[in-house]
Design brief:
The two termini are 53 Å apart. The strands form four sheets. A seven-stranded mixed β-sheet has the order 2-3-1-4-7-9-8, with helices on both faces. Strands 11-12-13-10-14 form a five-stranded parallel β-sheet, sandwiched between helices. The chain is built from 42 helices and 16 strands. The protein has six domains: 177 residues, Alpha-Beta Plaits (2-Layer Sandwich), CATH 3.30.70; 143 residues, Rossmann fold; 89 residues; 79 residues, Arc Repressor Mutant, subunit A (Orthogonal Bundle); 80 residues, Tetratricopeptide repeat domain (Serine Threonine Protein Phosphatase 5, Tetratricopeptide repeat, Alpha Horseshoe), CATH 1.25.40; 121 residues. Helix 24 packs parallel to helix 26, helix 27 runs antiparallel to helix 28 and helix 38 runs antiparallel to helix 39. Strand 8 and strand 9 form a beta hairpin.
């Protein structure tokens, strides 16, 4: 088991192994196998643990610094005594030891201290053992016998942070004389000492170093928006590469240079080359070429975006005339010259929502915030109370290092909650960076201003207009929304390309479509600029109009063979449509708002966005009677359909009857047919007048109108529920026939989603009549079709259907498993009514298993939810299940009272009981009467009948004593 707490890390590596593998692969295979045994033995015998092998090296951990020193000495002694193959010579290993507090996750250590241990090993020579000052302090008074240390002084490691005082272990049987360490101090360079550690970019650093190590990569440009961390990455890459350049690594900082003409002079000043040497018509660039042409060096050009053409010209000259010079550069955009390689720097990795606290520190964005916050407030740490807020702050800031550092600095004076709240105005909050930083890195506003001011006016106009998009956009959307005034439709593609090149807009391919987007920080900046320029009204109106037309077109395709494409389109653009709807409501553009909710209603139903749908529909309808009547009626109709799905049948009728009145006044036959269908469904589910053969006039009339309109989809939609009515009248054969007609009709028009729903309803009918073979087939078909359209709601209901079949077979284990999966899916969807129903179903399994405590808990949750929703019929059903629970617990008195309450509403009462459930209810009544005797039962039943529903709810929720 890997040690925790204070740990001493051992890193090792074989010197020159790459060349030996290339020249002597067979001999090296034998030698490295022996090397591995020696290292593993030395580590294990001294109580160490191998964390992992890295190529030909080892990473090990020790709970004791003393043991780590003994292991290192033992390993070097054995390695130097080993009779190696004469062809390849001795295998020389460099070893480092560093002690720190360990951060252990998933079987590995991470964090800056681990990286520092690896950096220490990289400056050693083969045969040498280096230890850090932290390790030296721990073993100062207990050095192993015959082991000593040599102070090698303060050395700059390749992580560019503070120098480390380095010591060398010496022992009688190992080499002690070595050349100077390979630290930055021993190499020609002007790389700065950085005051903060390099965090969270190890993967990117490895990728960049690998690219830059390619033989034909002589110019690598790191591209990304301001504050993304390009400078730190390029400097660390330069430090990592320093051994490859005998004439050094040289940084040229260009941020303060404002005139392109003096670029060569700025570069020359780094090398002490003066303009006076440029005589006889020779420019400074020519002098630099003469200076560089025979040298092997690395030139780092940092912050090139405002001098992009001059930098590109200079780099091109270097590539053509100085064959041993390589260049690293940072910029918002690439140079665009032959021979250039680019690496696009992304934001720091962010934790997903609901990441457990122990895992948060694995994410680079969190690591950066924590380290920088501890500088401002040394005792700051990650806790159960602040973890979620801290993660949300980092997500809000897009993982941009500069923004995270500026936010972390604020913990000195305000809480994380206050920081999170104030990020709505991030450009005000994120100021006050280090005084020594470049001015454009002292505030987030200045960083964005720097990029914005480098744009042409048309580029600025497009950037700020694109900021209205909240979920990305396509080229077509940009052309429709942003092409007015100084930006023409024909210019949009070229301008958009320039914004991508300048790292202000991102692009990715989805299928066969390119989709564009901005970091939220860039978008918020654009929103501010849009307001400053007075373009909000025009841009938002064009934006809303575009997405209304898109939603209306997609809505038509949701009910035919275009369904999958329409669903994908609306899924992709959902954030934009929400934003357009929000603007329409805020601006009291009621016709636009009604058009949007009318177009989105069916999609919201299909995707289970019921909370979203109810919120938007309620907002629109609560604003009053504005807007055109037909558009308002469609919105009301959609709201009624939502209440039907949620189980609020009374609310359905009230809403849909209002919409029906409007459609009739407007002579809108399609709207009338829709309303009649919904009213027919509500009547069907409430089983009103089911004994009457003419009890379904709404559905019949709906089918007739759809038929007249030649709307085959509408006919199928009505037939499906006519089949439900036939079932409730007891004519199962006709029910199957009508439902199968509807199923076939939906298959013909290509509506997979309604095929899935039709299979589910057919399965439900078969299940209620205990036709288990048909029910199982139908539910499984429904599940398959749900998978095709990604309908998580109906998928959950189909799982519940299969769970009920398991319950009928008394297979309680499978029933519990299926109900649990369905419940979890419905909880994710967020509809309280469906979750409440699933809790009631799962409670039935618990009751039959004899887990009465869990059954009561689930029924209580269900009852509270239905109370909150005001769903009276569902409340009655849960009360009835409480009666069953009381009976199972042997408490017939409570069962009798609660049965009286449920009978007041069920059966012949307000909510008629379907024939298929009457037997189960009657069996409960009979069993309870038998348990108590007729006389006692009648007395207790009368007491229950005297309760109103609210009293019954309170009574049901009381503790149930077992008899």
């Amino acid at each position: 088991m890997l040690p925790t707490g204070t740990v001493t890390f051992l890193f090792s590596d074989v010197e020159g192994s790459t060349r030996l593998w290339e020249v002597h692969p067979q001999e090296m295979q034998v030698a490295i196998a022996r090397h591995d045994v020696i290292m593993q033995t030395a580590i294990a015998e001294k109580n160490g643990h191998v964390v992992k092998q890295r190529g030909d090296g080892f990473h090990a951990a020790f709970a004791s610094a003393y043991d780590a020193v003994n292991a290192a000495v033992a390993a070097q002694t054995a390695l130097q005594e080993e009779p190696w193959d004469e062809v390849i010579g001795a295998i020389r290993v460099r070893i480092s030891l560093h002690t720190s507090t360990a951060q252990l996750r998933e079987g590995d250590y991470y964090g800056p201290q681990v990286n520092r241990a690896a950096r220490l090993e990289s400056i050693a020579h083969g045969g040498q053992v280096l230890i850090s000052s932290a390790t030296r302090e721990l073993i100062r008074d207990e050095l192993p016998e015959d082991v000593g240390v040599i102070d090698l002084g303060r050395q700059r490691l390749k992580d560019l942070s503070r120098p480390e005082r380095v010591y060398q272990l010496v022992a009688a049987d190992i080499q002690s004389d070595f050349p100077p360490l390979r630290s930055l101090d021993s190499r020609h360079n002007n790389l700065p000492i950085l005051q903060t550690s390099f965090l969270g970019r190890e993967t990117e650093l490895n990728e960049i170093c690998e690219l830059f190590g390619e033989p034909n990569c002589r110019l690598l440009t790191l591209v990304g928006p301001g504050g993304i961390g390009k400078t730190r990455l390029v400097l660390t890459t330069a430090a990592e590469s320093i051994d490859e350049f005998s004439h050094g690594v040289w940084l040229v900082e260009l941020a303060a240079i404002t005139e392109a003409e003096i670029l060569p002079d700025q570069i020359a000043s780094v090398f002490g080359v003066t303009a006076q040497e440029a005589r006889g018509g020779r420019g400074v660039t020519d002098v630099l070429v003469d200076y560089f042409k025979d040298k092997t060096l690395l030139l780092v050009l940092d912050n090139c975006e405002h001098l992009i053409e001059a930098c590109a010209s200079f780099a091109e000259v270097m590539l053509q005339r100085c064959p041993k010079v390589k260049l690293l550069a940072t910029s918002r955009e690439d140079f665009g010259i032959p021979g250039e390689w680019t690496y696009r720097v992304s934001p720091l990795a962010l934790p997903p929502d609901e990441t457990p606290l122990p895992d948060l520190e694995m994410y680079p964005a969190i690591q950066l915030f924590l380290e920088r916050a501890r500088v401002a407030r040394p005792r700051f740490g990650l806790t159960e109370d602040n973890g979620a807020v801290l993660a949300e702050i980092c997500r809000t800031l897009d993982g941009i290092p500069l923004a995270i550092e500026l936010a972390a600095a604020r913990v000195r004076v305000i809480s994380l909650e206050q920081i999170s709240e104030r990020l709505q105005d991030r450009f005000y909050l994120l100021a006050g960076g280090p005084r020594t930083a470049l001015p454009r890195h002292q505030t987030l506003q200045a960083t964005m201003d720097w990029s914005y001011n480098l744009l042409s006016e048309p580029e600025r106009a497009l950037l700020r207009r694109l900021s209205v998009f909240t979920g990305g956009w396509t080229l077509e959307a940009a052309e429709e929304v942003a092409s007015f005034g100084e930006v023409t439709r024909q210019q949009v593609l070229d301008l958009l390309t320039l914004l991508v090149d300048k790292s202000l807009v991102g692009v990715e391919e989805r299928g066969n479509i390119m989709r564009y987007g901005m970091l939220e920080t860039v978008r918020q900046y654009g929103v501010n600029k849009l307001s400053e320029q007075g373009e909000v009204e025009e841009t938002q109106r064009r934006y809303a109009t575009f997405f209304i037309q898109l939603a209306e077109g997609a809505d038509e395709g949701l009910r035919d063979a275009r369904q999958l494409d329409s669903l994908e389109l609306l899924d992709t653009e959902h954030d934009n449509i929400r934003s357009a709807l929000g603007w329409s409501l805020d601006s009291r553009e009621m016709d636009l708002a009604f058009r949007l909710v009318g177009a989105m209603g069916w999609f919201w139903f299909m995707r289970g966005h019921w909370v979203d749908a109810r919120r938007w529909l309620t907002k629109v309808l609560d604003l009053g009677a504005g807007g055109s009547p037909p558009l308002r009626a469609k919105a009301i109709c959609r709201a009624g359909g939502l209440e039907l799905i949620r189980g609020n049948l009374i609310g359905t009728v009230e809403l849909v009857e209002g919409a029906l009145d409007i459609f009739r006044r407007e002579s809108d036959d399609s709207g009338i047919a829709w309303c009649l269908n919904l009213l027919g469904q509500a009547r069907t589910f409430r089983q009103e007048d089911i004994e009457n053969a003419n009890a379904d006039p709404f559905l019949i009339r709906s089918a007739e109108i759809f038929s007249t309109l030649e709307d085959d989809w509408g006919v199928s939609w009505s037939n499906r529920y006519l089949g439900q009515v036939a079932e409730f009248r007891g004519d199962l054969n006709q029910s199957y026939e009508l439902q199968k007609q509807a199923l076939h009709g939906f298959e013909v028009v290509g509506d997979i989603w309604n095929v899935a729903h039709s299979f589910f309803l057919l399965g439900a009918s078969a299940s209620r009549h205990r036709d288990l073979e048909v029910a199982k087939w139908a539910f499984e078909e429904s599940l398959e079709k749900c998978g095709m359209v990604e309908d998580k709601v109906m998928e959950a209901h189909a799982l519940k259907g299969l769970a009920h079949l398991a319950l009928y077979r008394n297979d309680l284990i499978q029933a519990e498993e299926l109900f649990q999966v369905a419940l979890e899916a419905l909880q994710k969807i967020g509809d309280e009514g469906c979750v409440a129903g699933a809790n009631k179903d799962l409670a039935e399994v618990m009751r039959r298993q004899g887990d009465f405590l869990q059954a009561k808990e689930l029924l209580s949750q269900s009852l509270h939810s239905f109370e909150n929703l005001g769903f009276e019929e569902n409340i009655v059903w849960v009360v009835e299940r409480f009666a069953a629970l009381a009976h199972s617990m042997g408490n017939g008195e409570r069962a009798a009272r609660l049965l009286a309450v449920s009978d007041t509403y069920l059966g012949e009462g307000v909510f008629p009981l379907s024939p298929t459930f009457r037997d189960e209810h009657k069996q409960l009544v009979t069993s309870t009467r038998k348990l108590l005797g007729d006389q006692v039962y009648e007395r207790l039943y009368a007491e229950g009948a005297a309760m109103d529903l609210q009293e019954a709810v309170v009574y049901a929720l009381e503790e149930i004593p077992e008899n």
